[in-house]
Every structure is written in structure tokens, then in C-alpha cells.
Amino acid sequence: MHGQSLTPELPNLISFLARAFKGNVFIQSLVSWENIIFSLAIVIILSAFSYLAGRKPKPIPSGLQNVGEILVEGLDNFVCAIIGPRGRKFTPFIGTLFIYILFMNLSGIVPFIKPATASWSTTLALSLCVFTYVQYTAVKEMGVVGYADHLAGKPRGAFLFTLFIPLLMFFLHTISELVRPLSLSLRLRSNIWGDDVLIAILAGFGAKGIPLLVFNMLMAILTSVMQAVVFCLLSTVYFALALKHE
After folding, report:
1. d(CA 111, CA 123)
2. What is the pLDDT of residues 28-73, one digit of tens each?
3. 235 to each of 50, 126, 245, how far by Cα in Å?
4. Which of helix, strand or coil describes residue 12?
5. Staple partner for 61: which of 54, 66, 192, 235, CB 3.0–4.6 Å?
6. Nearest alpha carbon to residue 123 among 131, 113, 133
7. Are 216 and 196 in contact, with CB atoms under 8 Å apart?
8. Which of 20, 38, 18, 32 is nearest to 192 (CA)?
9. Which of 114, 101, 123 is nearest to 200 (CA)?
10. Strand partners, 112
């Protein structure tokens, strides 16, 4: 058990230090910040990788530069396949989301590291970033009035020009937009948290649980990749819906 929580959870570096130094107020306070600390650790690792991969670019890439270029090209193709050529301007945002979420998800299989995406505070923050950027894009593309008209639904026949139907559609589409951050964040958090809890339970079985533990860790890797893909796929679709459709 971690702290006073009733949910099984593998010990991580911060919880281990908190138990070892129970009288240290500073270390005890870190427990409340563990999700932020582990997510910042991923930021530092990815920043170091980006620096090393791009500090001396070569015409014929090799090593880390080659890995970086393959990753960027793959993400750009992914975004543009959904949105079209105009989607390239969203590649840096969506690509960063994918890499960041993927590494946070995968960090859960590293001993003494807690996946920050197992916390709703982390996934909700990421979802709100997507929501804000999508709304900004929609207003920028269509204007405030045009976006409101878009939410009222199209096309409209003679009957749909009445006041009731457009207002109803506007209300339903607005609710749909507001619900997206909740569904996006809860889907990611619940899957990663579930894997984390299951691995903690199997680890408690000792040697008898090793075969199941190994199998579920492999499944956790697959889930980590899939959830990062799903989060960014839905985010890309939201951007596609926010753009003007000629």
C-alpha cells in the first residue's frame, strides 16, 4: 500500500524516501507533488534527447538524429493523413503530446517510477490544453459568429431555419465540446491506472505471480502505446472538425 491509500500501488522513489525519512517535513511534502515530479523528470529526459539529437544535424542522419527524424516524419504523416496538408502546423503540438504521454505511460514499468498519467490531474491538464487550442483554432478559423453558426449545425432545410432546431443543435454541440476534456482525460487515466494497480496486485503474490506479472507488464507496454495513439488520434480529429471545410 502507498501511504494511507486503499488502492494497491507499487512503491516509487518518493514514497520510499517518505517512509525512510518520516521526520523530514520536506520529503514528506514531496508525496503531494509526486505526479508533477515524475512528469517533469520525463520532460528533462525528452529535452536532453532532443538536444542531443539535434545539436549537430548532418545531411545524412545517423544515431539519435536518425531516430528523431523518423519519429517526426511518422508523426507528421499521422497528423496530415487525418487533417490534410493544413495539419502540418499542428504536428509540433500533437507530436509533443504523443511522445510526452507515451513516455509517461511507459515509465510505469520502470522500477520505483510512477506513471504520472495514472493521475487524473495530469491527464485532465493535458486534455484542457487540447480543448483550449481546439477552441482557439475554431474561433481563429471561423470567427466567433461563424463558430457559433457552426455549432448550430449545417446543412439546414426550410424547417431547420426555425429558431428552435438551431438552438437545440447549438446546445447539444456545446455540451459535446465541454465533455471532450472529461472523456479524453478519463480514458487515458483509467487505462494507465488500471494497469498500475493490476501490476501492484500481481507483484504482491511473490514468486508465484511472476509469470502473470511478466505477461501483464508486456500488456502494459501495448496499452501505453495504444492509449498515447488514441489520445492523439482524437485530438487530431478535434482539430480537423474545428477547421473550415471548403
Report:
1. 22
2. 888 889 999 999 999 999 999 998 888 888 877 778 888 888 999 9
3. 23, 11, 18
4. strand
5. 66
6. 131
7. no
8. 38
9. 114
10. 12
Residue with cell 465533455: 179
Q: Which pTM was predicted?
A: 0.89
Largest interatomic CA distance in the chain: 73
Integer CA distances (angstroms), 195 to 108, 144, 181, 200, in order: 9, 42, 22, 9
Closest residue by Cα to residue 142 from 129, 156, 152: 152
Phi, psi of 12, deg, nearest 5:
-115, 175
How many residues are there in the chain? 246
pLDDT, average across residues 96-118? 93
Contact by Cβ (8 Å): 231, 184: yes
Question: Under a CB-based contact definition with an 8 Å cutoff, are residues 141 and 148 in contact?
Answer: no
For the chain, which residues make up each domain, given as ranges? 13-242
Does position 111 have pLDDT exceeding 50, yes or no? yes
